[in-house]
Amino acid sequence: MTCTKWLQSAWVGVVLTVSVGTWAGVASVDVKQVAALQSQGALVIDVREPHEYAQSHAPGTMLIPLGQLESRLSEIRAHQNQPVVLFCRSGQRSARAQEILTRAGFTKAVNMEGGLIAWSRAGLPVVTGEAK
User: Fold this and answer.
1) Inter-residue contact 45 to 108 (CB < 8 Å)
2) Contact indicator for 24, 117 with CB cutoff of 8 Å
3) Strand order in the sheet with 28-29
4) pTM (two decimals)
């Protein structure tokens, strides 16, 4: 088995393990896990401010600034028992967002370690432009 195939298999195993039943107690995931979760349909929410999002953000993410999160829970309630990944610039605000969602009954809400800084350093794609 090539190294690439082994890594792909390993990531699938991690994602399946996390999504099948060991999610309880998982508070954060790294950027590689987020990329895998996102490819499997996880909701990924950027909790930074609109001007930060417009400058640079991960593709396929939803913008809900931290200060608006509690008042906008109805927009994401359908994902209450599905993987929801939260991130910001460095991981501080998204850790608070993860706590808010957990208190609101979201069973698979996690914080992306290192935020967009770690995402960019890992060579993952970023785009510019305002939220739609």
Assistant:
1) no
2) no
3) 28-29, 109-112, 84-87, 43-46, 62-63
4) 0.81
pLDDT recorded at residue 2? 53
Give CA–CA dist 70/49, Å, rounded: 15
CA distances 27 to 58, 96, 115, Å, are: 20, 11, 14
Q: Which residues are catalytic?
A: 88
List all residues 6 or more positions away from 17 whose beta carbon is below 8 Å from its beta carbon. none
pLDDT per position as a tens digit, 81-95: 999 999 999 999 999
Q: What is the mean pLDDT of residues 6-26?
A: 45
DSSP 73-88: HHHHGGGTTS-EEEE-
CATH number of 3-121: 3.40.250.10
- Asked if 128 and 54 count as a contact pair (C-beta separation under 8 A), the reply is yes
The token duo for 59 is: 């593709």
Instruction: Give me the residue spans of the domains in the chain.
Output: 3-121
